Each structure stands twice: as C-alpha cells, then as structure tokens.
Amino acid sequence: MPDGADLPAGTTPVLDVQHLKTVFRVRGGEVHAVNDVSFALGAGELLGVVGESGSGKSVTMMSLLGLLPSPPADVRGGTVTFEGEDLLQLPLDKLRKVRGGRIGFVFQDPMTSLNPVFTIGYQIMEPLQEHMGLNKSAARARAQELLELVGIPGAAQRLNDYPHQFSGGMRQRVMIAIALACDPKVLIADEPTTALDVTIQAQIIELMKDLRDKLGMAVIWITHDLGVIAGIADRVVVMYGGQIVEHAPVKELFRNPQHPYTRALLTTIPKISGERARRLTVIQGQPPILGDAPTACPFRDRCDVAIPRCSRENPPRYDLGHNHDAACFVAKGSQHAG
Amino acid sequence: MLDNAAKPSKPLVQVRDLQMHFPIYSGLFRRQTGAVKAVDGVTFDVMEGETLGLVGESGCGKSTCGRAILRLYDITGGEVAIDGARIGKMSQGDLRPLRPAMQMVFQDPQASLNPRMTVEAIIREPLDEHTKLTAAEKEKKVGELMDTVGLNRRFAKRYPHAFSGGQRQRIGIARALALNPKFIVCDEPIAALDVSIQAQVVNLLEDLQEQFGLTYLFISHDLSMVRHIATRIAVMYLGKVVELAPRGPLYEEPLHPYTKALLSAVPEPDPALAQTRERVVLQGDVPSPANPPKGCNFCTRCPAVMDVCRQIEPTYQEVRPGRFVACHLYESTGTADATAGHP
C-alpha cells in the first residue's frame, strides 16, 4: 500500500504505520504475530481494530510504542511515523516522552493496570509531573479536573483513595483520566470495555464519545466486539492471523463486507432484535498457528469460497473503491466481474 | 404453584424462595457481622426439555444460583426439587445417588479440567464413581461420548493443554453427559471462547438437547446469545429475579426498567441502527449485596423510580400470562399510591 493511502485524500495522518512486522522467539521456533501491517490514523478520527484473540491486534499496538519485552519480541521491520519521527528508531529516553505524553494508552484490565499501593491521585499526577513539568499543586489541580472530566463524583476527595476503593467501571474511568492527562494527540484503547458489564460498558462508550467531541484526539479502539465497533468507530480494520484482511469505513464494512472472514464473523453473532436464526452459522475449524511468515492466505482452511490460488500466495490488500480494501483474491475477482 | 395449567410440559426443576447467604466475619473474635446476600429469594421453574436462560451482570448472583440449585453449596433457605426429589435440605451423602441426573458445565475449561489427567480419564471419572461398568464398557462409552461432542477418538490419551479453548469446552460437555443426565447447568459455557468458536459450542449444546432430551439452565451475561438458545429467560439483579418471560415477549417488550436498560445497553453490530436506537444509560454501579438498599434493589439506579420503591420491596408476581415481574410499576395493588407519588 502506498503511504497513507487508506485515509481519504487530502488528510495528513497523525500516525502512519507501514509494513510493521513483529516476531516472538519461543522455544522451538518463532511466532509471527504481526505480518506486514499498514494503516494510518487521521486527526480526530476513531479507528476500530477488530479481531479474535491471537489475531495480533494488541501486539500491533504494543509494538508501535516499544512496549513489548525484547527478547522474546522482535520488531523486524516497518516504520511508525508520528509527528515526523519514526517511533521504532527513537532512543528510549525520547520514546518515554511520547508514551503517556503525546500518545496515551488504556489497557484492557483496570484491575491489574493500576498500582494497588499508590493513591489514584498519585498515579494521575505522575505523568503530569513527568511530561508536563507541573509542580505538585498544579498537578493536583489538573488531576482533579481530569477526574471530573471522566465523571467521577467527589473528585477532590477521591484523589486520596486507592484503586481497590473503586468499582471496575470507575477504575476504567481513572485509567482513561491517566491516559488523557497530558492532552495526547492519539489515544490507544486496548479492549477498554471487555472486562466490564454491558451497562457499565455503555457508560464508558458514552464517555469516550463525549471526550472525543471535547478534546478532538484521534483514537485507536481495539476490540473483539463488532457491536461496540458499529456504535463508535469511523473506520474499521479487521485483523486475522496477524494481518489486516479488510479495511473500510464503518457503514461500508457492515453493509458491504468483502472478505469471507468478515462476512462469516458478521453472520455468526446472534442479534438482539429482528429475526432469530433457527441455527447459528459457524466458522468451521480453528484460527491458524503463526509459526512461519505467511506464504498463503491465513483464512483459506476455514474459508467457504477458497480457490487453489489461496494456498499458493498470500493475497495483498486489493483496493475495492470507496476507501475499502480487502486481502482476498475472490473479493477482487468478483469486484472486476461486477 | 406459579405455573399456569396451559403449559404443555411439566416442571423438571422447581426452585422456591432460594436463598444463599455467605457470612462475613470481622473483628478480633471473628464474629459474624453480616452476610453477602448473593441469592436472596429466587423462585422459578425449569420445564422439561426447555432451556431457561439466566442473565444478569457480574455479581448479581446468577452463578451462585446455578451452583446452589445443584447443591454445590449448603443453601441458607428455600427449597429445590429436581425431578420430584426435594434436595434443598438433603445431606451430601443422600444426594450422591441423585447426582447423575444433574450435571454442570463450567465457565473456564482451562480451570475445570485437571491438567494431569488425560481426556479419557477426565471423561471416564464420572463412570468410575457412579457406575459398575467394566473397563472395556467404559472405554467404549468414552469413545462414544467423544464422538457425540465432536472430538477425535485418537486424542483420548492427550492432556487438556493440547486442546484449544473450544475443544476443552467439548471435553467438559462430554464429562457432563457421561451419566445420561436430565438436567445440566451451563455456567457461562461460552464466555471464555472466541466469537467464531462460541457458535460451534452453542450449536453442539442445541444438538445434544434435541438428541438426549436435555433440560438446560443456561447462565450467561451475553444477552444476544441467550436470545438464541433460551426458551424462557430470567433476569437477575442483586440476588433477585426481577423479570421472567418467554424469549419473544422479553426482547420485544421488556417490562422491568432494568431489563429495558440492560437490553438497550447491548451494542448492536449495525451502525445505522446504533445511531437511531434510543439508549437508556444507567448511572452508577450495582450496590453491594452485603448491604442492599431498602425497598426495591434497583431503586438506586432506576430511571423510573418512585417514592414507594425506596420503602417497600415489590412482590414478584405474574402480571401477564407467563410473564413474571417484580416492580411497583406493574403491581395491581398500590398503583394509586404509586402514581400519586410520581407527578
């Protein structure tokens, strides 16, 4: 893919990832977790990343910021351009200025990503003092503002509370407050609502929508839940076997999915309204084991429209028009026929 | 009894005012200072051959309820009858011969299978415990069970770690089926699985139900999957069932304000619908079951709360044929007071 091609013409990306490759060295071989992943993030947009566990969605985002321990992880190639610099080439001290400063990160599990022995206030103030050079009282005032922003009642008193004194939903709000502390340009949220109940999930999604309107940052939202994506994303990237298999604006993707995996995924989830299917459609088989660099389509064994070419070559991402692309020979073929 | 005579099948499981309280001990002498009321007065029937869905958020007591029905706990109060046998106060020894008829499939297939036993040994264990079959008969039965749940017989000598999540869940299901049970409690059997694998396991459960005439209590927090598999659905909140209704009416026209909020919070995989749909976003969190609010348990978050809700606990009653609700909005007596208190 040419640089920034998945963005609408005329926009400059805030974050541009090209040909990213991450390999884990394990006993008895390698795991190719991320294979040639390219995408761009426009200013102020929300990019949804969907995939099952093991599809490489979290590893991709961790690789961007060098958050993976090396060894075993090894980022083998690619570029990540953020504010004119390649994050993969930055020395650690400069990278630390970016992490938690201009790029914020919200992790999946609010129970384990907060330090239980420090107060919430301390944990929110830490990046403020570190990255923005605020003194203690200014940092405290800002921390209180942030807690109010994410909708925690009694913010001033709660700064002195410890993580265990907050409920799951409240802890995730605190995590979001920490990620937002230094006015990031990009917020990466890795399954921010997966550990939460549906009613709490609805609260966090409303909060994120509000915050985007107020602060105008770009967001990468990783999830396995297509329902969440439908409600919140502008564009969607579908990952399978460590690769991006389909990319499209959200409405286009749900109306007109082109990759067989996306199509199968959309039919396999039961709906809460409308006609009830007598039987669920299943995707047969198991996700692939990523022992080698891909030489064939990762979905071919479970695909119902696979052709012989699928096991000989790994399909590149074909442009299908309308800012939509899919890594599938069959989707490309039918596009030309139609 | 709560059921109307029009129902074609008879109840297999009857749960009456089931209570499961866990004591809290504190202070120097570890005196009991309170109790977590995990299940606090639950009443329902599970009909023969049906799937009753039990839904609710985490901490609402749905798993505890499932375990208490099978007497994996010594219950605090109430009565449970399975297939006519009243097991609520039975001793564990007396219960043992009845165990084959009631089985359980657990949430986490990683944790519920012994990592040091082969698949064959895991599936054979209930046969060892409860039957007098010979070794050859047992081996044959294990093979048949593996075929039934779609596991390759060649893998009988392997250990659980060699299997994927979906396959491990199949091992758990095979073990539950070993003694030809009538009633199976499925405690979030698909929660730990990926979307594409969930459908495989749900279809398997449906096939087995048809084949063996099983009755399920299907515990889940996934409302769209429950809509697919369950015939009737009970919604729990803070230890109580707030609404119980057949599948169709419940999803088309939920009555209890909590059910309404819960359904509207489920994200729909359709961007056009997601924009137009009206959402009820509940404020706040679920109160602690150790210290539930006075009156209705839902009064702290209810969008339609009235004065009476903070004072009197609503009764769980049949408001339409087959539909049970515990809410003052639908109570026939005291409606006048309720409307007066709510301008």
UniProtKB/TrEMBL annotation, chain A:
Main location: membrane
InterPro entries for the chain: AAA+_ATPase, ABC_Ni/Peptide_Import, ABC_transporter-like_ATP-bd, ABC_transporter-like_CS, Oligopep_ABC_C, P-loop_NTPase
GO molecular-function terms, A-Z: ATP binding; ATP hydrolysis activity
Ranges of residues in domain ABC transporter: 18-266
Pfam families: ABC_tran (PF00005), oligo_HPY (PF08352)
UniProt keywords, alphabetically: ATP-binding, Cell membrane, Membrane, Nucleotide-binding, Transport
Gene3D superfamilies per UniProt: P-loop containing nucleotide triphosphate hydrolases
Bilayer topology: Peripheral membrane protein
Claim: Membrane is one of the keywords in the record: yes
Coiled-coil region: none
GO terms classed as biological process: peptide transport; transmembrane transport
Similarity comment: Belongs to the ABC transporter superfamily.
Stored NCBIfam families: oligo_HPY
Entry protein name: Peptide/nickel transport system ATP-binding protein/oligopeptide transport system ATP-binding protein
UniProt organism field: Loktanella atrilutea
Lineage, broadest ranks: Bacteria, Pseudomonadati, Pseudomonadota, Alphaproteobacteria, Rhodobacterales
From TrEMBL, chain B:
Main localization, broad class: membrane
Database matches in InterPro entries: AAA+_ATPase (IPR003593), ABC_transp_ATP-bind (IPR050319), ABC_transporter-like_ATP-bd (IPR003439), ABC_transporter-like_CS (IPR017871), Oligopep_ABC_C (IPR013563), P-loop_NTPase (IPR027417)
A single BP term in Gene Ontology: transmembrane transport
SUPFAM superfamilies from the UniProt entry: P-loop containing nucleoside triphosphate hydrolases
Domain of life: Bacteria
One Gene Ontology CC term in the entry: plasma membrane
Pfam annotation, one family: oligo_HPY
Membrane topology, record value: Peripheral membrane protein
Record localization: Cell inner membrane
NCBIfam families linked: oligo_HPY, PRK11308.1
Entry similarity comment: Belongs to the ABC transporter superfamily.
Protein name in the entry: Oligopeptide transport system ATP-binding protein
Organism of derivation: Loktanella atrilutea
